[in-house]
Design a protein that fits this description.
Blueprint: E1 6-8, H1 12-24, H2 31-51, E2 66-71, E3 76-81, H3 88-96, H4 102-113, H5 118-122, E4 136-144, E5 151-156, E6 162-167, E7 173-180, H6 190-201, E8 208-213, E9 219-223, H7 240-251, E10 259-265, E11 271-277, E12 294-298, E13 301-307, E14 319-324, H8 333-338, H9 340-363, H10 365-385, H11 390-396, E15 399-401, E16 404-408, H12 410-416, E17 423-428, H13 432-436, H14 442-446, E18 451-454, H15 459-465, E19 468-469, E20 472-476, H16 490-502, H17 504-513, E21 518-523, E22 532-535, H18 543-552, E23 561-565, H19 570-578, H20 585-602, H21 610-625
Helix pairs in contact: 1-4, 2-6, 9-10, 10-11, 10-15
The structure holds adenosine-5'-diphosphate.
Residues 35, 39-40, 43, 81, 83-86, 94-95, 126-129, 174 line the site of adenosine-5'-diphosphate (ADP).
């Protein structure tokens, strides 16, 4: 190990991140203190947790605390903790690189979303420490790890990289010295620091002490924060602002949350939760490696960040803390996975979050609309995967609809449902526009049936999991099993069957012509204006979804669909005239291919052979114009 001074340059991403932080946060400089106090508190939490099993670890230095010293003359602000500390290698690693694989994506995301989104994005990537350069020209970090007896000093001006060298021992933990920039000198003020600590760090569960030098020269350490676990206080004693600051502390978000729930569950398993729904979704919500979960405490002792085991994956956007009285302090991730108490906690926490979502849906519809547009896709995963909560999630789901400008709930659909309708209709496609214009829903709309437009890729699986809602069947307008015959009179039925009988020869020939493309040809009931459409066999995947899957998975088998004809359409009547005339069979097959391609286009599917389509169209236009 190098025992001497060494010079390092920052990893490229650090430079970029530093640039972004400094450029976009200049009007929020004061948050540096929150970030540094948050890091110090984490370092104390980590040490405390280890000391539960390693009893000798604390030695004589038993009271875990954060100290702040101010020297206005030197423009110096010192923040120290007697926490876990850092070794030389950790200093280089933690403060010279950005360990998280997400840092590159962070930089990309900032570029993509523009400066305004930076505030939301920064916190998620642990760039907190670098915010010290918002106020300081030079930052010096002196640290001794609890696992080492060497003290090391890291120092940087953020411009030319950083140096690391051995330092004089000042005890376990980390001391951060901020050499304040000339125009930031007022951060070295007693009043300012007290105000910022109250504002940003009152909830830190360790004492934060400020040095007061007495006339006698003695130093008095005054505790300037409340230092108690916020979530253990009675709700009535907590201000909204405190709740919001606590959220920012645990989530690293910069904006206040959209909603929160603070609860205590007593009975077989006792635990407290303080959970929040962020207003903005993290941009990596759909990444498999996305950090998720909440902070887990056991009897107020910090155990782990990002605890995934106590929230289902479809609530991965929820932030906050859960504090359990029943888990052992030495609980590990492996143990959590098997533990019965964990399952009880997860269930209880999930119910509380669903209560919260239901409350927002009822009382704050605008916020709920934001929430749904941000997290709806994730919540729909729950409909698919989580039987226990399916009904509640189905009620929370919102869909685009033919009868409503705003996304609608299934309950609202049921309320609007006219007498005599006993099914819920939906259609699946890439966008509202595409589905709205698709031939499949013509007859439904004509009969004043509401159709839900499902345009999220996950919708196919979500609706498959809810075959019925409050005893009403969910039926796809695009599937073979749509049954519109029930409300037909005997007379209508007779007429329809006669017409279909007349089309038999045409249908027979079409089956031969399109043998490679479709599994069946039949008369349709769902069309009014269009001559033809393609429908999905019962239980089959919708065309849009099949197309998406095929794009991801080469060689996926192609599903043959059913070709439906509108018996009342003049084109079909004319074609029926051609059927059976042997001399015109070549002509008939040209028309049939053209119709088939048209059915693909009308539903938004690409056509398989565009040159042939173009040739047929040109020929047809030529004939028509001559
Ligand atoms: P984050 O805290 O989000 O991980 P930071 O840039 O603020 O990101 O800090 C990087 C890392 O440096 C921390 O994860 C931690 O390991 C280490 N660190 C920062 N401050 C301290 C401290 N006071 N004591 C011990 N380790 C610290």
């Amino acid at each position: 190990m190098a025992q001497t001074r060494s010079e390092h340059s920052f990893q490229a991403e650090v430079n970029q991140v530093l640039g972004i932080v400094i450029n976009s946060l200049y009007s929020h400089r004061e948050i540096f203190l929150r970030e540094l106090l948050s890091n110090a508190a984490d370092a104390l939490d980590k040490l405390h947790y280890r000391s539960l099993t390693e009893h000798e670890l604390l030695g004589d230095d038993r009271e875990l605390e954060i100290r702040i010293e101010i020297d206005p003359e030197q423009r110096l602000l010192k923040i120290s903790d007697n926490g876990i500390g850092m070794t030389r290698d950790e200093l280089v690693e933690n403060l010279g690189t950005i360990a998280r694989s997400g840092s590159k994506r962070f930089v990309e995301a900032v570029k993509e979303r523009g400066e305004n989104a930076t505030l939301d994005l920064i916190g998620q990537f642990g760039v907190g420490f670098y915010s010290s350069f918002l106020v300081a020209d030079r930052v010096t970090v002196r640290s001794r790890s609890v696992d080492s007896d060497e003290t090391w000093v890291w120092s940087s001006d953020a411009k030319t990289g950083f140096t690391v060298e051995p330092g004089e021992d000042r005890g376990r933990g980390t001391e951060i010295r901020l050499h304040l920039a000339e125009d930031q000198a007022d951060y070295a003020s007693d009043q300012r620091v007290r105000y910022l600590v109250r504002r940003y760090a009152d909830y830190v569960g360790h004492p934060i002490r400020l040095a007061e030098t007495q006339d006698s020269g003695e130093v008095d350490w005054e505790t300037i924060n409340e230092a108690s676990a916020l979530w253990r206080k009675p709700k009535a004693e907590i201000e909204d602002e405190e709740y919001d600051e606590f959220y920012k502390h645990v989530s690293h978000d910069w904006e206040a949350p959209l909603a929160r729930t603070h609860f205590k569950i007593e009975g077989g398993t006792n635990f407290t939760g303080l959970l929040y729904v962020p207003r903005n979704p993290p941009f990596d919500l759909y990444d498999r490696e996305h950090r998720r979960g909440v902070r887990l405490y056991v009897k107020r002792v910090f155990i782990m960040d990002d605890c995934e085991e106590i929230l289902p994956v479809w609530l991965r956007f929820v932030r906050g803390i859960v504090d359990s009285d029943d888990l052992p302090l030495n609980v590990s991730r492996e143990l959590l996975q098997e533990d019965r108490a964990t399952r009880t906690i997860r269930k209880g926490v999930t119910k509380k979050v669903l209560d919260l979502l239901e409350r927002i849906a009822k009382d704050q519809p605008e916020d709920y609309a934001t929430l749904w547009s941000n997290y709806g896709v994730v919540l729909k995963e729950g409909i698919h995967y989580d039987e226990d909560f399916r009904d509640r999630l189905a009620a929370l789901a919102r869909f685009e609809s033919s009868k409503s400008e705003e996304p609608t709930s299934l309950d609202a659909y049921l309320e609007r449902m006219p007498e005599g309708q006993d099914e819920i209709y939906y259609a699946i496609g890439p966008s509202r526009n595409a589905v709205e214009g698709s031939p499949h829903i013509e007859a439904l709309l004509k009969r004043d049936r509401e159709v839900l437009f499902l345009t999220d890729p996950v919708d196919e699986w979500a609706v498959a999991a809810i075959p019925t809602y409050k005893d009403k069947k969910l039926v796809s307008a695009m599937r073979a099993d749509l049954d519109l015959d029930r409300d037909e009179s005997d007379e209508e039925k007779k007429q329809r069957e006669e017409k279909a009988g007349g089309l038999e020869p045409l249908i027979g020939q079409m089956k031969e012509i399109l043998a490679d493309q479709v599994s069946e040809v039949r008369v349709s009931r769902r069309l009014t204006d269009s001559p033809v459409c393609l429908v999905v066999p019962e239980g089959g995947l919708h065309a849009h979804i099949e197309r998406m899957l095929r794009a991801q998975q080469k060689g996926m088998p192609r599903q043959k669909r059913i070709f439906e004809l509108n018996a009342d359409h003049p084109v079909i009547a004319k074609l029926a005239g051609l059927a059976g005339d042997e001399n015109r069979s070549a002509e008939l097959s040209e028309w049939v291919f053209l119709l088939y391609d048209q059915a693909c286009l009308a539903e938004g599917s690409p056509i398989a052979d565009p040159p042939s389509f173009a040739r047929r169209m040109a020929k047809m236009m030529g004939d028509a114009l001559s």
